[in-house]
Amino acid sequence: MENFICVQCGTQFAESAPPPPSCPICADERQFVRHSGQEWTTLKRLAANHHNRFEEEAPRLLGIGTEPDFAISQRALLLQSPGGNLLWDCTALLDDQTAAEVDARGGVRAIAISHPHFYTTMVDWAERFDTEIFLHAADREWVLRESPRIQFWEGTRLSLWAGMTLINCGGHFEGGTVLHWPAASRDGGSIGALLTGDIITVVQDRRYVSFMRSYPNLIPLGAIAIRRIVERIEPFSFDQIYGGWWQANVLSNAKAAVTRSAERYLRAIGI
Question: Are the beta carbons of 158 and 166 closer than 8 angstroms?
Answer without folding.
Answer: yes
